[in-house]
What does this fold into?
Amino acid sequence: MKTILKGSQLWLMGLAIMVMSCGQSNNQNTGALGSNIAERVYVAPGEHDEFYAFVSGGFSGQLAVHGLPSGRLFRVIPVFSQDPEKAFGYNEETKPMLNTSFGFVPWDDAHHPDLSQTNGEIDGRWCFINANNTPRIARISLSTFETEEIIELPNSAGNHSSSFVTENTEYIVAGTRFSVPVPQQDISINEYKGKFKGAMSFIKVDPNTGRFNLEFQIMMPGFDYDLAHPGRGKSHGWMFFSTYNTEEANTLLEVNASQNDKDFIAAINWKKAEELIANGDFETMNVEYAHNVYDEATHSATSTIKNEVKVIDPSKYPGLVYLLPTPKSPHGCDVDPTGEYIVGSGKLSASLTAHSFTKMLAAIENQKFDGDVYNIPIINYDDVVGGVVQQAGLGPLHTEFDGKGFGYTTFFISSEVVKWKVGTWEVVDRQPTYYSVGHLMIPGGNSRKPFGKYVLAMNKITKDRYLPTGPELCQSAQLYDISGEKMELLLDFPTIGEPHYAAGCPADLIKPNQKKIFRLEDNLHPYAAKSEKEARVERDGNEVHIYMTTIRSHFAPDNIEGVKVGDKVYFHVTNLEQDYDVPHGISMIGANTSELLIMPGQTETFVWKPKRVGVWPFYCTDFCSALHQEMQGYVRVSDKDADVPLSWSLDGE
Amino acid sequence: MKYLITPVLILTLLILFSCGGGGKSKIEQIKQQSTVEPADPYDLWQSNHGVGPVQAFELPAEIDQVLVSSGQEIYESKCTACHKVDKRFIGPAPTGILSRRTPAWIMNMILNPENMVQKDPIAKKLLMEFNGSPMANQNLTNEEARAVLEYFRTL
It folds into this structure.
């Protein structure tokens, strides 16, 4: 350096260094704050999350199991769609689960999970979820995380206001979104008004087994029924459904169903309905619906078509249903933990309406009615409203409660979660979501006892939030800490399909009940081979049944001869392992189906129709041990007329 | 410096070669003394009771036939995929096992195989001998493992 720095330049440099160093220390502060948020969602390797979140897969038809606060995805439970990874809907055992009165349906649109309750609190036994398109309700065991039961709903169409659980899991309630002719008939669509009906289904749940029975349906006027929530505490025994299209329009609903200033929340007294059923005040209707049950002992599902349902006409029975006027096509219909307030969110309104259950009972008592619809009384708006959260945002959809006196409502159009105080109806906080939030979930939200530590908001649009993946982007969930006065955004994570609603609860309610293996001695599968001694191959005409076993790391038998082109070959494979987390898979070259993934002690079956002469290999598809790559076998396929005798062996025996 | 290197190198080489030269060096003698082959864990079986829930114990003199038949049933349903009675298969044959292993070792191997193949010298050696096939934990209860052991006494 030839130039000599002048004093003033030195001074400037010193200042620059000081400024820069100040900047650095500021950055460190931000960094520390940032890492504080990271710490609150960080679950260290090997540690467990505090909450389970069951997030609907929407148009994937499935149910995703995440941990909170980490957002980690643990399992996608196949419910209404085939899943080749787990052979659900592909193997012979679970195909009947997807049977309907329309035949086998391989897909659906899963919307609103809800958890079983005892005395108004989450009990960790089952999760329920609805299929929107071909109306069905499913029950998922929270000890096996498998779908155990699916019941189809006759007279229903667009099963959207479902599947909500009453406070002792007496019923799963499922309302139709689309009204349809009941019974179905060949009439003009213009004849909608008066001829189309909306069926509200009440599915009884056996308290011990969880088994469903479609107990009765209440045949409501031909509105669209959007969402529902049960009464609890003082309002236990009532069910509340939001409605829109009370105009009974049958075309261009975005205009024609937005005419009325107020639609309704329908309050149904289901205890009254039970009395009517007991008194014989119902009609028995001939219908057709599938009831599919998976049996854990046989590892197999059966599908039964049923033909009757009890139907109650509410216009004939005063006291069964009341209509609560609610502004502008309400979507969400949510009940606070005390059971006093029923909050309706008019999509086209900026305000939330909280109806008061106490006022509703008084209005009924004093006959404060404002006319009726199809003989169902409409309660005076002013005599039922308990409060209004005024102008809280644009496009209110859904509300959950924290159990500490606050409600949290999503606003779709303004993309935000708004916190407000129950009783004073004042807005106390708002946080943006990214973007276009639908439902939100507080663990235990649909119960008397919410666990108000986090709220999970589920977004439809993610645009710029993640690395782009072509035109189709993931949807997302966002986790907020709600333990303080202000909500704090902690995390956002991608979800499968479309996350509509979710249900959550503390992990401790579910973890201790986990099934780890299926005991071989309890395996009642008719084609099980419970030891290698029982492994064999039998021919019955052109059907060949292979009773196969697996254990680390071989199949028995693994050499099979005497199979012919045109045969229908059943691989019935029993996993002899009795240790936690040791499944085996199997797949056959050219089989027109998925792999099997067989849990310890379980038997599963796939069908293979050999098309060509030759020697064809099969192998284990799940890396099971150090010798997994050795886990393979061959089937020799001979010509139709060949006389190769049927034989099988393992290691020459 | 250049001139120094050569003599040092030569000296070093000389020392090295003289060590390798005729007769046993000290190093080699010491080596020989210290490299006595470690004992074969199989030979020490009588003092090895394995790692796991079962402590060393003595079997009663008389064989309990009721226990034997329940043990045989359990063995046939849970174990035969890998163990044939009198033939090496995926794992070793149990015939005569009580002249090779202690009762507690046998039960610990059944009940606690994951730890046994990591910590127990016999189990570690067996794992190598049997192609690295791990012994599967078939989730037997202590009573069931005891019954299987009783059955093994008859083989």
